[in-house]
Amino acid sequence: MLVISLVVSQLSPFGFDWWILLGGFVPGLASVAIAFILFFRRGKEE
Amino acid sequence: MAEINMVSIGIIVVYMAILGAIGWFSRNKVKCTADWCVGSFRIGGIVMGVAFFATYFSAVIMVGFAGLSAKLGLSTLVIGLWHPVATLLVFAIIAPVLSKMFKELNAMTYSEFFTLRFKNQAFGTLSSLVIAIFIFPYTISAIIAMGSALSALVGTPFWIGVIASGVIVAIYIFTGGLFSATLAEFVQGTVMVFVVIGVALFSYSMLGGYLPAHQALADINISLVSFPAFGSSTWVTIIGLTAVMSFGFIAQPQAVLRYATICNKLNIKKAMIIAVLGTLIFPLAAYSYGAISNPILRSFGYNPATMIQDMIIPTFVNVALPQWLGAVFLVGMLCAATSTIDALVHMTAGTVTKDIVKPVFRKEMTDKGQLRLMQVLSLVFAIGACVFAIYPQATIVQLASYAWTVIASAFFGPLLVAVYSKRADWKSALGGLIVGFAVAQLWYLYPPIPLHAFFPGVGASVLVSFALCRFGKPPQDMVERLFKPSK
Predict the structure, then answer these.
(1) What is the pTM of this model?
(2) What is the pLDDT of residues B186-221, one digit of tens each?
(3) B43 by DSSP, 3-state: which?
(4) What is the distance between the alpha carbons of residues B384 and B371, in angstroms, rounded to a whole number?
(5) Domain that holds residue A34
(6) Distance from CA of A37 to the nearest CA of B (A)
Protein backbone atom coordinates (compact mmCIF):
# COMPACT_ATOMS: atom_id res chain seq x y z
CA MET A 1 0.00 0.00 0.00
CA LEU A 2 2.83 2.34 0.94
CA VAL A 3 4.62 1.58 -2.30
CA ILE A 4 1.50 2.23 -4.37
CA SER A 5 0.81 5.48 -2.53
CA LEU A 6 4.35 6.61 -3.22
CA VAL A 7 3.91 5.85 -6.90
CA VAL A 8 0.57 7.68 -7.03
CA SER A 9 2.17 10.72 -5.39
CA GLN A 10 4.63 10.80 -8.28
CA LEU A 11 1.75 11.11 -10.71
CA SER A 12 0.15 14.40 -11.76
CA PRO A 13 -1.90 16.26 -9.14
CA PHE A 14 -5.00 14.62 -10.61
CA GLY A 15 -3.90 11.13 -9.66
CA PHE A 16 -2.91 9.86 -13.09
CA ASP A 17 0.15 9.79 -15.28
CA TRP A 18 1.56 13.08 -16.58
CA TRP A 19 1.33 11.63 -20.10
CA ILE A 20 -2.45 11.40 -19.79
CA LEU A 21 -2.52 15.05 -18.76
CA LEU A 22 -0.12 16.26 -21.44
CA GLY A 23 -1.22 13.93 -24.23
CA GLY A 24 -4.97 14.17 -23.58
CA PHE A 25 -6.19 17.03 -21.41
CA VAL A 26 -3.87 19.69 -22.85
CA PRO A 27 -4.87 19.21 -26.52
CA GLY A 28 -8.53 18.65 -25.60
CA LEU A 29 -8.86 21.79 -23.49
CA ALA A 30 -6.69 23.81 -25.91
CA SER A 31 -9.08 23.02 -28.76
CA VAL A 32 -12.01 24.30 -26.69
CA ALA A 33 -10.09 27.51 -25.97
CA ILE A 34 -9.19 27.94 -29.66
CA ALA A 35 -12.83 27.35 -30.68
CA PHE A 36 -13.94 30.21 -28.41
CA ILE A 37 -11.17 32.49 -29.69
CA LEU A 38 -12.16 31.79 -33.31
CA PHE A 39 -15.82 32.30 -32.50
CA PHE A 40 -15.34 35.72 -30.94
CA ARG A 41 -12.59 36.91 -33.30
CA ARG A 42 -14.43 36.06 -36.51
CA GLY A 43 -17.63 37.33 -34.94
CA LYS A 44 -15.97 40.73 -34.57
CA GLU A 45 -14.77 40.71 -38.18
CA GLU A 46 -18.26 40.03 -39.44
CA MET B 1 -36.48 -6.99 -10.65
CA ALA B 2 -40.04 -6.92 -12.00
CA GLU B 3 -40.35 -3.30 -10.86
CA ILE B 4 -37.21 -2.11 -12.64
CA ASN B 5 -38.33 -3.95 -15.75
CA MET B 6 -41.66 -2.15 -15.77
CA VAL B 7 -39.99 1.22 -15.16
CA SER B 8 -37.55 0.54 -18.00
CA ILE B 9 -40.24 -0.64 -20.35
CA GLY B 10 -42.26 2.47 -19.47
CA ILE B 11 -39.23 4.62 -20.31
CA ILE B 12 -38.83 2.94 -23.68
CA VAL B 13 -42.52 3.46 -24.50
CA VAL B 14 -42.36 7.16 -23.56
CA TYR B 15 -39.14 7.56 -25.55
CA MET B 16 -40.70 5.96 -28.62
CA ALA B 17 -43.72 8.26 -28.24
CA ILE B 18 -41.46 11.35 -28.15
CA LEU B 19 -39.58 10.26 -31.26
CA GLY B 20 -42.84 9.37 -32.96
CA ALA B 21 -44.04 12.91 -32.19
CA ILE B 22 -40.85 14.33 -33.73
CA GLY B 23 -41.44 12.27 -36.87
CA TRP B 24 -45.08 13.45 -36.98
CA PHE B 25 -44.03 17.08 -36.45
CA SER B 26 -41.42 16.85 -39.23
CA ARG B 27 -43.60 15.07 -41.80
CA ASN B 28 -44.98 18.29 -43.31
CA LYS B 29 -41.49 19.73 -43.69
CA VAL B 30 -40.47 16.97 -46.10
CA LYS B 31 -41.84 17.50 -49.59
CA CYS B 32 -38.87 16.62 -51.79
CA THR B 33 -35.53 14.78 -51.69
CA ALA B 34 -33.66 18.00 -50.79
CA ASP B 35 -35.79 18.28 -47.65
CA TRP B 36 -35.24 14.63 -46.74
CA CYS B 37 -31.52 14.44 -47.52
CA VAL B 38 -30.08 17.80 -46.44
CA GLY B 39 -32.96 19.66 -44.81
CA SER B 40 -32.78 22.00 -47.84
CA PHE B 41 -29.69 23.57 -46.17
CA ARG B 42 -31.93 25.34 -43.66
CA ILE B 43 -30.87 23.66 -40.41
CA GLY B 44 -29.24 25.99 -37.87
CA GLY B 45 -25.91 25.79 -36.05
CA ILE B 46 -27.08 25.03 -32.52
CA VAL B 47 -29.24 22.09 -33.61
CA MET B 48 -26.54 20.85 -35.98
CA GLY B 49 -23.77 21.24 -33.37
CA VAL B 50 -25.64 18.98 -30.96
CA ALA B 51 -26.63 16.64 -33.82
CA PHE B 52 -22.96 16.38 -34.80
CA PHE B 53 -21.77 15.07 -31.46
CA ALA B 54 -24.94 13.01 -30.94
CA THR B 55 -24.14 11.27 -34.23
CA TYR B 56 -20.46 11.05 -33.31
CA PHE B 57 -21.08 9.23 -30.05
CA SER B 58 -23.33 6.27 -29.75
CA ALA B 59 -23.96 3.53 -27.26
CA VAL B 60 -20.67 2.20 -28.66
CA ILE B 61 -18.91 4.80 -26.49
CA MET B 62 -21.24 4.45 -23.50
CA VAL B 63 -21.04 0.65 -23.47
CA GLY B 64 -18.22 -0.71 -25.68
CA PHE B 65 -15.47 1.88 -25.22
CA ALA B 66 -16.40 2.50 -21.57
CA GLY B 67 -15.98 -1.27 -21.14
CA LEU B 68 -12.53 -0.96 -22.72
CA SER B 69 -11.73 1.76 -20.15
CA ALA B 70 -12.70 -0.62 -17.37
CA LYS B 71 -10.01 -2.99 -18.63
CA LEU B 72 -7.28 -0.47 -19.59
CA GLY B 73 -7.89 2.31 -17.06
CA LEU B 74 -7.54 6.09 -17.27
CA SER B 75 -5.13 6.06 -20.22
CA THR B 76 -8.22 5.63 -22.44
CA LEU B 77 -9.18 9.21 -21.53
CA VAL B 78 -6.62 10.23 -24.15
CA ILE B 79 -8.80 8.62 -26.86
CA GLY B 80 -11.75 10.80 -25.89
CA LEU B 81 -9.76 13.97 -25.32
CA TRP B 82 -8.66 14.11 -28.95
CA HIS B 83 -12.25 14.18 -30.22
CA PRO B 84 -12.57 17.97 -29.69
CA VAL B 85 -9.31 18.49 -31.60
CA ALA B 86 -10.73 16.73 -34.66
CA THR B 87 -14.05 18.56 -34.22
CA LEU B 88 -12.25 21.91 -34.18
CA LEU B 89 -10.47 21.03 -37.42
CA VAL B 90 -13.78 20.07 -39.00
CA PHE B 91 -15.65 23.26 -38.15
CA ALA B 92 -12.80 25.76 -38.36
CA ILE B 93 -11.17 24.54 -41.56
CA ILE B 94 -13.24 22.05 -43.59
CA ALA B 95 -16.89 22.96 -42.95
CA PRO B 96 -16.80 26.58 -44.25
CA VAL B 97 -15.39 25.47 -47.62
CA LEU B 98 -17.26 22.19 -47.95
CA SER B 99 -20.67 23.60 -47.04
CA LYS B 100 -20.20 26.34 -49.68
CA MET B 101 -19.43 23.64 -52.26
CA PHE B 102 -22.38 21.47 -51.21
CA LYS B 103 -24.76 24.40 -51.67
CA GLU B 104 -23.17 25.55 -54.94
CA LEU B 105 -23.51 22.04 -56.37
CA ASN B 106 -26.84 21.37 -54.64
CA ALA B 107 -25.40 18.00 -53.54
CA MET B 108 -27.78 15.86 -51.51
CA THR B 109 -25.39 13.12 -50.43
CA TYR B 110 -21.67 12.61 -49.87
CA SER B 111 -21.39 10.50 -53.03
CA GLU B 112 -23.44 12.94 -55.07
CA PHE B 113 -21.01 15.64 -53.98
CA PHE B 114 -18.18 13.59 -55.52
CA THR B 115 -20.24 12.92 -58.66
CA LEU B 116 -20.93 16.61 -59.21
CA ARG B 117 -17.53 17.88 -58.05
CA PHE B 118 -15.60 15.61 -60.41
CA LYS B 119 -18.32 15.42 -63.07
CA ASN B 120 -18.09 11.65 -63.01
CA GLN B 121 -21.05 9.44 -62.15
CA ALA B 122 -19.00 6.22 -62.01
CA PHE B 123 -16.84 7.55 -59.17
CA GLY B 124 -19.92 8.72 -57.27
CA THR B 125 -21.58 5.32 -57.66
CA LEU B 126 -18.42 3.48 -56.60
CA SER B 127 -18.07 5.68 -53.52
CA SER B 128 -21.71 5.08 -52.60
CA LEU B 129 -21.16 1.31 -52.89
CA VAL B 130 -18.17 1.49 -50.54
CA ILE B 131 -20.22 3.57 -48.10
CA ALA B 132 -23.26 1.30 -48.24
CA ILE B 133 -21.18 -1.84 -47.66
CA PHE B 134 -18.79 -0.60 -44.99
CA ILE B 135 -21.12 1.62 -42.98
CA PHE B 136 -23.12 -1.54 -42.31
CA PRO B 137 -20.71 -3.02 -39.70
CA TYR B 138 -20.83 0.26 -37.82
CA THR B 139 -24.63 0.32 -37.89
CA ILE B 140 -24.61 -3.25 -36.61
CA SER B 141 -22.16 -2.36 -33.81
CA ALA B 142 -24.43 0.47 -32.65
CA ILE B 143 -27.44 -1.87 -32.64
CA ILE B 144 -25.51 -4.59 -30.78
CA ALA B 145 -24.52 -2.02 -28.14
CA MET B 146 -28.14 -1.08 -27.67
CA GLY B 147 -29.35 -4.67 -27.70
CA SER B 148 -26.75 -5.74 -25.09
CA ALA B 149 -27.56 -2.87 -22.79
CA LEU B 150 -31.32 -3.28 -23.15
CA SER B 151 -31.13 -6.98 -22.40
CA ALA B 152 -29.00 -6.36 -19.31
CA LEU B 153 -30.96 -3.38 -18.03
CA VAL B 154 -34.52 -4.33 -18.92
CA GLY B 155 -34.09 -8.08 -18.68
CA THR B 156 -35.48 -8.80 -22.14
CA PRO B 157 -33.75 -11.23 -24.52
CA PHE B 158 -30.97 -9.68 -26.62
CA TRP B 159 -32.93 -9.99 -29.87
CA ILE B 160 -35.83 -7.96 -28.49
CA GLY B 161 -33.44 -5.13 -27.62
CA VAL B 162 -32.04 -5.30 -31.15
CA ILE B 163 -35.46 -5.21 -32.82
CA ALA B 164 -36.60 -2.40 -30.49
CA SER B 165 -33.67 -0.24 -31.58
CA GLY B 166 -34.52 -0.76 -35.27
CA VAL B 167 -38.19 0.05 -34.73
CA ILE B 168 -37.44 3.20 -32.71
CA VAL B 169 -35.25 4.59 -35.46
CA ALA B 170 -37.61 3.63 -38.26
CA ILE B 171 -40.43 5.53 -36.54
CA TYR B 172 -39.03 8.98 -37.16
CA ILE B 173 -36.52 8.62 -39.98
CA PHE B 174 -39.20 7.31 -42.34
CA THR B 175 -41.28 10.46 -42.14
CA GLY B 176 -38.92 13.32 -41.43
CA GLY B 177 -35.50 12.50 -42.95
CA LEU B 178 -32.72 14.91 -41.90
CA PHE B 179 -35.22 17.33 -40.34
CA SER B 180 -36.50 14.81 -37.83
CA ALA B 181 -33.09 13.13 -37.50
CA THR B 182 -31.36 16.35 -36.43
CA LEU B 183 -34.28 17.47 -34.29
CA ALA B 184 -34.29 14.09 -32.54
CA GLU B 185 -30.49 14.20 -32.26
CA PHE B 186 -30.73 17.64 -30.63
CA VAL B 187 -32.96 16.21 -27.91
CA GLN B 188 -30.91 13.00 -27.68
CA GLY B 189 -27.55 14.78 -27.56
CA THR B 190 -28.66 17.12 -24.80
CA VAL B 191 -30.05 14.25 -22.71
CA MET B 192 -27.07 11.93 -23.20
CA VAL B 193 -24.52 14.55 -22.08
CA PHE B 194 -26.34 15.09 -18.80
CA VAL B 195 -26.72 11.33 -18.31
CA VAL B 196 -23.02 10.49 -18.74
CA ILE B 197 -22.02 13.41 -16.50
CA GLY B 198 -24.46 12.18 -13.86
CA VAL B 199 -23.21 8.59 -14.02
CA ALA B 200 -19.56 9.72 -13.89
CA LEU B 201 -20.15 11.99 -10.88
CA PHE B 202 -22.09 9.28 -9.06
CA SER B 203 -19.37 6.71 -9.80
CA TYR B 204 -16.68 8.98 -8.37
CA SER B 205 -18.82 9.72 -5.32
CA MET B 206 -19.15 5.98 -4.67
CA LEU B 207 -15.39 5.80 -4.20
CA GLY B 208 -15.16 8.96 -2.09
CA GLY B 209 -14.21 11.50 -4.76
CA TYR B 210 -11.79 12.14 -7.57
CA LEU B 211 -8.42 11.32 -6.01
CA PRO B 212 -9.62 8.43 -3.81
CA ALA B 213 -11.17 6.85 -6.92
CA HIS B 214 -7.86 7.08 -8.77
CA GLN B 215 -6.09 5.69 -5.71
CA ALA B 216 -8.53 2.75 -5.79
CA LEU B 217 -7.58 2.16 -9.44
CA ALA B 218 -3.87 2.36 -8.62
CA ASP B 219 -4.39 -0.09 -5.76
CA ILE B 220 -5.62 -2.68 -8.27
CA ASN B 221 -2.80 -2.06 -10.70
CA ILE B 222 -0.65 1.02 -11.24
CA SER B 223 -1.08 0.54 -14.99
CA LEU B 224 -4.74 1.62 -14.60
CA VAL B 225 -3.63 5.20 -13.86
CA SER B 226 -0.55 5.22 -16.13
CA PHE B 227 -0.08 5.74 -19.81
CA PRO B 228 1.18 2.48 -21.36
CA ALA B 229 4.84 2.07 -22.25
CA PHE B 230 5.84 3.23 -25.74
CA GLY B 231 5.43 0.42 -28.27
CA SER B 232 3.51 -1.93 -25.96
CA SER B 233 0.34 -3.58 -27.27
CA THR B 234 -1.84 -1.35 -25.07
CA TRP B 235 0.02 1.72 -26.36
CA VAL B 236 -0.62 0.61 -29.95
CA THR B 237 -4.32 0.09 -29.16
CA ILE B 238 -4.77 3.49 -27.52
CA ILE B 239 -2.85 5.49 -30.11
CA GLY B 240 -4.67 3.67 -32.93
CA LEU B 241 -8.12 4.20 -31.43
CA THR B 242 -7.28 7.84 -30.68
CA ALA B 243 -6.53 8.46 -34.36
CA VAL B 244 -9.42 6.42 -35.74
CA MET B 245 -12.12 7.67 -33.42
CA SER B 246 -10.97 11.30 -33.63
CA PHE B 247 -9.70 12.05 -37.11
CA GLY B 248 -11.46 9.08 -38.72
CA PHE B 249 -14.80 10.78 -38.09
CA ILE B 250 -13.91 13.75 -40.31
CA ALA B 251 -14.40 11.72 -43.51
CA GLN B 252 -17.41 9.69 -42.34
CA PRO B 253 -20.40 10.38 -44.63
CA GLN B 254 -22.87 10.78 -41.76
CA ALA B 255 -20.60 13.47 -40.26
CA VAL B 256 -20.16 15.28 -43.57
CA LEU B 257 -23.94 15.42 -44.03
CA ARG B 258 -24.12 17.35 -40.77
CA TYR B 259 -21.24 19.81 -40.99
CA ALA B 260 -21.61 20.48 -44.74
CA THR B 261 -25.32 21.26 -44.69
CA ILE B 262 -25.44 24.00 -42.01
CA CYS B 263 -27.34 27.03 -43.30
CA ASN B 264 -24.61 29.74 -43.16
CA LYS B 265 -21.16 30.74 -41.83
CA LEU B 266 -22.42 32.26 -38.61
CA ASN B 267 -24.25 29.03 -37.84
CA ILE B 268 -21.12 26.99 -38.61
CA LYS B 269 -19.38 28.97 -35.85
CA LYS B 270 -22.23 28.35 -33.44
CA ALA B 271 -22.10 24.65 -34.31
CA MET B 272 -18.33 24.67 -33.72
CA ILE B 273 -18.67 25.87 -30.13
CA ILE B 274 -21.46 23.42 -29.30
CA ALA B 275 -19.78 20.47 -31.02
CA VAL B 276 -16.32 21.07 -29.52
CA LEU B 277 -17.78 21.30 -26.01
CA GLY B 278 -19.93 18.21 -26.58
CA THR B 279 -17.07 16.17 -27.98
CA LEU B 280 -14.96 17.09 -24.95
CA ILE B 281 -17.50 16.46 -22.22
CA PHE B 282 -19.28 13.33 -23.43
CA PRO B 283 -16.31 10.99 -23.98
CA LEU B 284 -14.48 12.36 -20.94
CA ALA B 285 -17.43 11.44 -18.74
CA ALA B 286 -18.05 8.07 -20.45
CA TYR B 287 -14.42 6.92 -20.33
CA SER B 288 -14.17 8.13 -16.72
CA TYR B 289 -17.09 6.09 -15.41
CA GLY B 290 -15.82 3.20 -17.53
CA ALA B 291 -12.45 3.22 -15.75
CA ILE B 292 -13.97 3.83 -12.32
CA SER B 293 -16.38 0.93 -12.80
CA ASN B 294 -13.41 -1.42 -12.36
CA PRO B 295 -12.87 -0.99 -8.58
CA ILE B 296 -16.62 -0.62 -8.03
CA LEU B 297 -17.40 -3.89 -9.82
CA ARG B 298 -14.63 -5.63 -7.86
CA SER B 299 -16.32 -4.58 -4.62
CA PHE B 300 -19.41 -6.44 -5.89
CA GLY B 301 -17.41 -9.57 -6.65
CA TYR B 302 -16.89 -9.07 -10.39
CA ASN B 303 -13.53 -8.88 -12.12
CA PRO B 304 -13.67 -6.69 -15.26
CA ALA B 305 -10.35 -8.14 -16.45
CA THR B 306 -12.05 -11.49 -17.09
CA MET B 307 -15.48 -10.19 -18.18
CA ILE B 308 -16.75 -9.84 -21.76
CA GLN B 309 -15.96 -6.24 -22.63
CA ASP B 310 -19.44 -5.40 -23.94
CA MET B 311 -21.11 -6.66 -20.76
CA ILE B 312 -19.00 -4.73 -18.23
CA ILE B 313 -20.98 -1.47 -18.26
CA PRO B 314 -24.46 -3.08 -18.37
CA THR B 315 -23.40 -5.23 -15.39
CA PHE B 316 -21.98 -2.18 -13.62
CA VAL B 317 -25.23 -0.27 -14.10
CA ASN B 318 -27.28 -3.23 -12.94
CA VAL B 319 -25.37 -4.12 -9.79
CA ALA B 320 -23.72 -0.87 -8.68
CA LEU B 321 -26.02 2.01 -9.57
CA PRO B 322 -29.33 2.69 -7.80
CA GLN B 323 -32.44 1.80 -9.77
CA TRP B 324 -33.31 5.42 -10.57
CA LEU B 325 -29.84 6.05 -12.01
CA GLY B 326 -30.02 2.78 -13.93
CA ALA B 327 -33.24 4.06 -15.51
CA VAL B 328 -31.54 7.39 -16.30
CA PHE B 329 -28.63 5.52 -17.88
CA LEU B 330 -31.11 3.57 -19.97
CA VAL B 331 -32.57 6.85 -21.27
CA GLY B 332 -29.10 8.17 -22.14
CA MET B 333 -28.15 4.91 -23.78
CA LEU B 334 -31.33 4.88 -25.88
CA CYS B 335 -30.58 8.46 -26.95
CA ALA B 336 -26.94 7.72 -27.79
CA ALA B 337 -27.69 4.54 -29.71
CA THR B 338 -30.62 5.81 -31.75
CA SER B 339 -28.94 9.15 -32.55
CA THR B 340 -26.17 7.30 -34.35
CA ILE B 341 -28.27 4.54 -35.90
CA ASP B 342 -30.70 7.09 -37.37
CA ALA B 343 -27.82 9.02 -38.98
CA LEU B 344 -26.40 5.86 -40.55
CA VAL B 345 -29.74 4.59 -41.80
CA HIS B 346 -30.74 8.00 -43.18
CA MET B 347 -27.41 8.51 -44.92
CA THR B 348 -27.29 5.01 -46.43
CA ALA B 349 -30.87 5.20 -47.76
CA GLY B 350 -30.19 8.57 -49.40
CA THR B 351 -26.89 7.41 -50.88
CA VAL B 352 -28.23 4.18 -52.35
CA THR B 353 -31.21 5.96 -53.91
CA LYS B 354 -29.42 9.01 -55.27
CA ASP B 355 -26.13 7.45 -56.33
CA ILE B 356 -26.91 3.83 -57.21
CA VAL B 357 -30.59 3.21 -58.01
CA LYS B 358 -31.36 6.43 -59.89
CA PRO B 359 -28.22 6.78 -62.05
CA VAL B 360 -27.75 3.06 -62.74
CA PHE B 361 -31.22 1.49 -62.80
CA ARG B 362 -33.94 4.19 -62.99
CA LYS B 363 -32.63 7.29 -64.70
CA GLU B 364 -36.14 8.67 -65.26
CA MET B 365 -37.14 8.35 -61.60
CA THR B 366 -39.02 11.43 -60.37
CA ASP B 367 -38.12 13.36 -57.23
CA LYS B 368 -41.25 12.05 -55.54
CA GLY B 369 -40.31 8.49 -56.50
CA GLN B 370 -36.82 8.94 -55.06
CA LEU B 371 -38.26 10.28 -51.82
CA ARG B 372 -40.54 7.26 -51.49
CA LEU B 373 -37.64 4.89 -52.23
CA MET B 374 -35.42 6.59 -49.62
CA GLN B 375 -38.14 6.18 -47.02
CA VAL B 376 -38.66 2.50 -47.86
CA LEU B 377 -34.90 1.84 -47.89
CA SER B 378 -34.50 3.48 -44.48
CA LEU B 379 -36.91 0.83 -43.15
CA VAL B 380 -35.10 -1.95 -45.01
CA PHE B 381 -31.65 -0.90 -43.70
CA ALA B 382 -32.88 -0.49 -40.12
CA ILE B 383 -34.43 -3.97 -40.15
CA GLY B 384 -31.55 -5.53 -42.12
CA ALA B 385 -28.94 -4.25 -39.63
CA CYS B 386 -31.05 -5.69 -36.81
CA VAL B 387 -31.07 -9.13 -38.43
CA PHE B 388 -27.26 -9.16 -38.63
CA ALA B 389 -26.91 -7.70 -35.12
CA ILE B 390 -28.84 -10.60 -33.61
CA TYR B 391 -25.86 -12.86 -34.37
CA PRO B 392 -22.85 -10.66 -33.50
CA GLN B 393 -19.54 -11.83 -35.01
CA ALA B 394 -17.21 -9.42 -33.20
CA THR B 395 -17.12 -6.98 -30.28
CA ILE B 396 -18.65 -3.53 -30.59
CA VAL B 397 -15.24 -1.83 -30.51
CA GLN B 398 -13.82 -4.12 -33.21
CA LEU B 399 -16.77 -3.54 -35.57
CA ALA B 400 -16.84 0.23 -35.05
CA SER B 401 -13.08 0.61 -35.37
CA TYR B 402 -12.97 -1.53 -38.52
CA ALA B 403 -15.77 0.38 -40.26
CA TRP B 404 -14.33 3.79 -39.39
CA THR B 405 -10.84 2.78 -40.49
CA VAL B 406 -11.93 1.48 -43.89
CA ILE B 407 -14.22 4.42 -44.68
CA ALA B 408 -11.71 7.02 -43.46
CA SER B 409 -8.92 5.34 -45.44
CA ALA B 410 -11.02 5.30 -48.60
CA PHE B 411 -12.35 8.85 -48.40
CA PHE B 412 -9.83 11.02 -46.59
CA GLY B 413 -7.76 11.67 -49.69
CA PRO B 414 -10.69 12.17 -52.12
CA LEU B 415 -12.42 14.53 -49.66
CA LEU B 416 -9.34 16.68 -49.10
CA VAL B 417 -8.49 17.01 -52.80
CA ALA B 418 -12.13 17.74 -53.65
CA VAL B 419 -12.16 20.58 -51.18
CA TYR B 420 -8.64 22.01 -51.48
CA SER B 421 -7.12 21.12 -54.86
CA LYS B 422 -8.00 22.97 -58.05
CA ARG B 423 -6.19 20.27 -60.01
CA ALA B 424 -8.18 17.37 -58.59
CA ASP B 425 -10.16 15.23 -61.00
CA TRP B 426 -11.98 11.91 -60.69
CA LYS B 427 -8.79 9.94 -61.42
CA SER B 428 -6.88 11.45 -58.50
CA ALA B 429 -9.86 10.81 -56.21
CA LEU B 430 -10.25 7.24 -57.51
CA GLY B 431 -6.55 6.55 -56.98
CA GLY B 432 -6.76 7.77 -53.38
CA LEU B 433 -9.91 5.76 -52.73
CA ILE B 434 -8.56 2.49 -54.13
CA VAL B 435 -5.07 2.72 -52.62
CA GLY B 436 -6.32 3.92 -49.20
CA PHE B 437 -8.96 1.20 -49.09
CA ALA B 438 -6.55 -1.55 -50.20
CA VAL B 439 -3.76 -0.53 -47.83
CA ALA B 440 -6.14 -0.41 -44.85
CA GLN B 441 -7.61 -3.82 -45.70
CA LEU B 442 -4.24 -5.48 -46.26
CA TRP B 443 -2.82 -3.93 -43.10
CA TYR B 444 -5.77 -5.30 -41.16
CA LEU B 445 -5.16 -8.79 -42.49
CA TYR B 446 -1.34 -8.84 -42.50
CA PRO B 447 0.03 -6.08 -40.26
CA PRO B 448 3.82 -5.91 -40.90
CA ILE B 449 4.39 -3.87 -37.72
CA PRO B 450 2.12 -3.26 -34.71
CA LEU B 451 0.52 -0.06 -35.94
CA HIS B 452 -3.19 0.59 -36.43
CA ALA B 453 -4.34 0.26 -40.06
CA PHE B 454 -5.78 3.79 -39.89
CA PHE B 455 -2.32 5.39 -40.20
CA PRO B 456 -1.09 3.67 -43.37
CA GLY B 457 -4.60 3.63 -44.87
CA VAL B 458 -5.31 7.35 -44.47
CA GLY B 459 -1.68 8.26 -45.22
CA ALA B 460 -1.76 6.34 -48.50
CA SER B 461 -5.15 7.79 -49.47
CA VAL B 462 -4.03 11.40 -48.92
CA LEU B 463 -0.60 10.96 -50.51
CA VAL B 464 -1.87 9.20 -53.62
CA SER B 465 -4.79 11.62 -54.10
CA PHE B 466 -2.57 14.70 -53.94
CA ALA B 467 0.22 13.08 -55.97
CA LEU B 468 -2.21 12.22 -58.78
CA CYS B 469 -3.56 15.79 -58.76
CA ARG B 470 -0.31 16.82 -60.45
CA PHE B 471 -1.47 14.93 -63.53
CA GLY B 472 -5.13 15.88 -63.18
CA LYS B 473 -7.31 17.37 -65.88
CA PRO B 474 -10.03 18.97 -63.79
CA PRO B 475 -13.25 20.29 -65.34
CA GLN B 476 -12.37 23.99 -65.68
CA ASP B 477 -15.92 25.29 -65.35
CA MET B 478 -16.20 23.45 -62.04
CA VAL B 479 -12.91 24.88 -60.78
CA GLU B 480 -13.98 28.42 -61.65
CA ARG B 481 -17.38 27.88 -60.08
CA LEU B 482 -16.15 26.38 -56.80
CA PHE B 483 -12.89 28.20 -56.23
CA LYS B 484 -13.92 31.73 -57.18
CA PRO B 485 -13.03 34.15 -54.38
CA SER B 486 -15.88 35.19 -52.09
CA LYS B 487 -17.22 38.69 -52.70
Answers:
(1) 0.86
(2) 888 888 899 999 999 999 999 999 899 999 999 998
(3) strand
(4) 20
(5) 2-45
(6) 10
